Amino acid sequence: MTPDAPTGASGVVVVTGVGRYLGAHVASRLAADPRINRVIGVDPAPPGAEIAGLLDGVERVRVDAGSLGGLLGDLDVDAVVHLALISAPDRQHGGRAAMKDQNVIGTMQLLAACQRAPRLRKLVIRSSTAAYGASFRDPAVFTEETEPREVPRGGFARDILDIEGYVRGFRRRRPDVTATVLRFAPFIGSTADTTLTRYFSQPLVPTILGRDARLQFVHVDDALEVLHRSVVEEHPGTYNVAGPGVLSLSQAIRRAGRVAVPVLEPGLSGAAALARTLGFGRYGLDQVDLFVHGRVVDTTRLVREYGFTPRTTAAAFDDFIRAHQGGVLLGRDRLAAAEQSVLDGIRQVRAAVRERS
Hints:
alpha/beta; globular
């Protein structure tokens, strides 16, 4: 369906996860759309200062997505956009256990509330191409019907599989609701701040020796456009959302003006720990497997049904590069922390050798 076609615009829309970048921008765009009467943003945490101004036209409710309960029915909600997912564990906020609780249990509780909402007519779920996993058994290109060849090792990918399983059950119980699942490739762009963008912002980028993964990205502005259209138009089903074309990992690193540091696959966890010490983000098995095996998806269904083609993977990545020209400089404190991390690693290896001898 194209933007000129009859729409399925809703009177009252609930958006979860508005305390973060994606949710705040989606809620802001919907609030500015005259076809929508009311936008309610849900998040247990207040938004950061950099996005708080986006929510001036959004009514905010300080609860988590799993606690909406009868609120959906009381508010006569027409549509729910579920964006409150965590893609990487944060040790300072409960680690992997808290991540799974929000992603899986929170979504399950939200769907139960949606099932009881009598006026609900539309459900939009943020998913990820991580649903396909990443292994040496993968096909060259994944379509929406492709099943993962192996159970993913990473927690986020396993959460996505659980979430999509709950959505399939919801579709059976509420066939009157248009349920749209959007499997996004990794976000990138001038304003994106993700584990992936922090990875490419490092002056020295760890890679897997002998591997050159094929990667796809989606510009965050194109992701916002697809989410908006999913609310104001009718698009039932599951869709891959990615920029056309592919970049190899080595090409992306060269475009970013960074230096690749090949390591053995078991050693990448050590490189990731060093990156955490430097403050560049958190890397888990989802990211490691992506950098080893890569992942490419087919977007024919998205282009046909939405009448919209995201900008290419290369163009999206170039926008990210333009916003990060000048590189990342290591200050004295970060350099000292990096040196200490390396020294600690050497001491641990030497101690292990002495114990064996």
